[in-house]
Each structure stands twice: as structure tokens, then as C-alpha cells.
Amino acid sequence: MNGEQKITAGHRQRLAVVYLRQSSLAQVRDNTESTLRQYDLAETAIRLGWPPAQVIVIDADLGCSGRQAASRAGLQELVGRVCIGEVGIILVLEVSRLARCSADFARLLELARLADTLLADTLLADTDGVYDLQEFNDRLVLGIKSTISESELHLMAGRMHAARVSVAERGQLRCRLPIGYVYDDEGACVLDPDEQVRAAVTDVFAMFRQAGSAFGVVQAFRRRPFPRRVFGRAHAGQLQWGPLTSSRIQRMVANPTYAGAYVYGRRIDARQPQPDETTKTVTTRRPRDQWPVLIHDHHPAYLSWSTYLDNLQRQPADPGRQPHRRTCPTRAGTPGTVSGHHPVWLLRAGHADPLPPPVASPRRLRLRSDHLPPAHQHLPIHRRRLRRCDRGRPAPVRRDAC
Asked: What is the pTM of this model?
């Protein structure tokens, strides 16, 4: 290896750290040769003069992306050992194994320079060897390699995205299909061959048109199971039956696939900085006029496009993000209730000021639309409290409030 003369006896008295990283668990499973090559760097450290007892391998980041360093326990351990001066040399297969972000890589280089650590970079095509971070030229070469590795990530992502868009524009990009659709042997999107599945999906849209809300459909399917197909893993494609939820109905109503349209790019991912100096990927929905790919009459439909647009007007603009309201509205004049806007269980005995609402788990919140006036049918109601109000029983009185 070139640059072995830069290694001194002081470096060999400290640890030789072999750092391993693969970007995903799929790469760990499939690219086994790359993982073996990284483990073989321990033999390289022994050949450079380090005793086997002073060679340690950090492989905690196998399956972790190098885009950011905050979520990588292995890199954090490496940085900690470098800061306390335990590391004499760091061996990596290539610079991109340490970081795909130039800022994280530059921070590691600065810490290693202050601790007088050598960075060994054993590239397959370029075995330049050992880099002394005390020398400006070596830091310059490593900085250029770090920039190239970061640009490679951008170029690879751009090529893969362009290829997906190209296939999607022809309507041939296979995505996860909603219930009621399957792929045939030729890869075309067709209706589910199971008659019960098709009948259940058809009834959902028919009941939604009749009830006007997702919760009305849930009440109609209270005693009727709804199908779902397992996605991925060993049981992929198997049919399962379970209860139908309002959030699932809202997703079905908002899905243009049921209108026979092929859509790609309904959502977009954006990275947002966080207070802890990390980034978080946030998925947002694009407006309908900004969808990159929209192909009408792509496959058989359960409803027309005009009916799909009409159904969208019947539900909130952003379903699933409606906050839970933990109040229990009751009809004025009902026996055992108090006329006004405050629920029975919020009023103290003999006092006009309401108590704060009790804390209830969202799992215990239910909607009893058959007991509510139309103005309150969109509110989630606790079943036990509502039944107490409807039976005309007085509200429970807290002893500490009397």
C-alpha cells in the first residue's frame, strides 16, 4: 500500500479501526462480496503492523444510509474513539463508506486531524494508500473524493427517478394496487378475480354516495368484514378479511385508481432541517393539476371520473389529519342533560364553570352517529359517556369538586 512510510510507532500503539457500512439491508443481503471485502480490511491492518488485539471492527452501520450521521451508531462510536485519541488509523473500503455528506465527512476529518489520526483509504481502482491528515495535500484529495461521493448519490438518484418517470408515462410502472385490483400474468391492471372482493368495493362507493360520509359507510359495514391483500413478505397476495375503518374509506375515495386512471407523482418528498441539526423527510400531497402523470381509462374502473371528483367534494380536503375532539355534545332538553353547549360530564354539581375534559385514549373514541343530531355526526364520541347521557342518567360527580 502506498504511503506506508507515514505510519509511525506512535500510530501503532493506538487502535486500528475498520469501519463497515452498507446503505440498505437489501445490499447487506445481496451484495455479500462487498461486505466480505470490508471485513478483509482487518487483515490489511495486521499487515501494516498492528497487533490483532488492537484491531477492532465497527459494523453497527450495516444497512444504514450515509446521507446523515445522526442515526448511525457505528459512526458515533468511531467519532467518540477518535476524539479521545484511541484511534491510530481508520480503514475503510472507500470514502463514501464514512459519509455521503460533505459536511459530516469534513467534521470527521477535522476531529481526526486534531487527534493526529491517519485515515487509510483502500480503494479498489485506486490504492493510493494512507493519507496523513496533517498534510494539506492529503486533506485536499480526501475532500475531493468526498465531494465526488456525494455527487454520485445525487446522480444515481436522478437517473433512477428519470427512469421511473419514463416508465410511468407509458403507464407501465408497477405500483402497489388498492384492494379490488390485481396484476395479471402479463402485468396489466385488472379487476380482482374474487367476486366477493369486487362486490365489497362496489358497495363501499355505493354506500358512500348514499350516506355522504365515511363514517356512514363504517356503520353500514359494522357487521360485515372487508377484504385486504397482504403486501410483501412471504404471504404476499393472500386475502384477509377484517373490519372497515373510516381512514381506509377516505383513502379509497381519494384514490383515482378506482376511476380507471393511472397516476404517478401524487406525493412528493422534501427534506426539512430539524432543531437537532438533522434532516427529516416529509411527504406532502401535490394538487391534482400538478400530477406529473395522469392517464385516463388506463384500466377497468369501479366509478366514473366525474363521480370520483364529486366524491372528493363530500369529504374534508385533508382527511386523516382532523384533530380528535374529546367533547360529548348532547341534545338540549334530554332528561339528565343540561341545556346549553357544555356536555353533562363537564359540569360540576352546583357550579356553572365546566371541568377540564378527562384524558381518553384515541382507541376508545368511537362515533355513534345514530344517537346524534346531524350537526354533530362528524364528531368522535366516547361510547360509554354517550350512552349514559342518552339513558337519562345524571353525570358522575367528582368528590373533590363537591
From this structure: 0.61
